[in-house]
C-alpha cells in the first residue's frame, strides 16, 4: 500500500490529515476525502480523493512517498529518468529490477521499493533530507498489526507498515 484512500487508517493518514488542516484521528473517512479532493482540485491534480506519490509531493509530504510495482505518475517518471530507464510513468518489473540494482550498489536495502531513502540517494527531491527519511520510518515494535492482505506491501521499517483498513 502506498496510496491513501477512504477506508484506510494509520500513521500516514494522520500525517495527511494534519497537512490538510484536519484533526488527525488517523482514519480516512468522508471529511478527509472531501478535504483531499478540494486540495487536489485547487492544485491541478486529479481530484479523485486518493493520495498517491504525486499528491504527496505536491503537499510536501515526501516522507510518505513509496514507489512500488503498480505505482504511476510524474514521480515514477522522475525515478525512471534518474535510473536511465524509459520514463513511461508506470512502475513495473523493469523499474523494480533497476531500483533493486541501484539499492544494492549504493548500500541501501535492496527491496525494490523506492522510498525516501532511495529517492534521497538518487537526488530526486532536494526536500528529502535525512530528517524526512527518519520521519518515513518507524521501529518495528511501533507498527500496528498489518492485515494479511497488506503483508509484504511495505518495507517493515516504513510508516506504511501501520496501514490497516477500517471499512468492510
UniProtKB/TrEMBL annotation:
Highest taxon above the source species: Bacteria
Q: Which Pfam families match?
A: PG_binding_1
Q: Which InterPro entries match?
A: Peptidoglycan-bd-like (IPR002477), PGBD-like_sf (IPR036365), PGBDSf (IPR036366)
Query: Which Gene3D superfamilies does the UniProt entry name for this protein?
Result: PGBD-like superfamily/PGBD
Residue span(s) of domain Peptidoglycan binding-like: 23-59, 78-122
Name under which the protein is recorded: Peptidoglycan binding-like domain-containing protein
Q: Which organism's genome codes for this protein?
A: Ancylobacter defluvii
Amino acid at each position: 500500500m502506498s496510496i491513501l484512500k477512504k477506508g484506510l487508517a494509520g500513521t500516514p493518514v494522520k500525517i495527511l490529515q494534519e497537512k490538510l488542516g484536519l484533526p488527525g484521528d488517523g482514519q480516512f473517512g468522508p471529511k478527509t476525502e472531501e478535504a483531499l479532493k478540494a486540495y487536489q482540485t485547487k492544485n491541478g491534480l486529479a481530484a479523485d480523493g486518493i493520495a498517491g506519490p504525486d499528491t504527496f509531493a505536491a503537499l510536501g509530504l515526501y516522507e510518505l512517498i513509496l514507489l512500488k510495482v503498480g505505482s504511476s505518475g510524474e514521480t515514477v517518471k522522475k525515478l525512471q529518468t534518474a535510473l536511465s530507464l524509459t520514463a513511461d510513468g508506470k512502475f513495473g518489473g523493469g523499474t523494480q529490477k533497476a531500483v533493486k540494482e541501484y539499492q544494492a550498489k549504493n548500500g541501501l536495502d535492496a527491496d525494490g521499493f523506492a522510498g525516501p531513502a532511495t529517492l534521497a540517494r538518487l537526488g530526486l527531491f532536494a526536500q528529502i533530507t535525512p530528517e524526512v527519511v527518519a520521519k518515513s520510518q518507524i521501529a518495528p515494535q511501533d507498527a500496528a498489526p498489518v492485515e494479511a492482505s497488506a503483508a509484504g506491501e511495505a518495507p517493515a521499517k516504513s510508516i506504511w507498515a501501520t496501514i490497516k483498513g477500517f471499512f468492510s
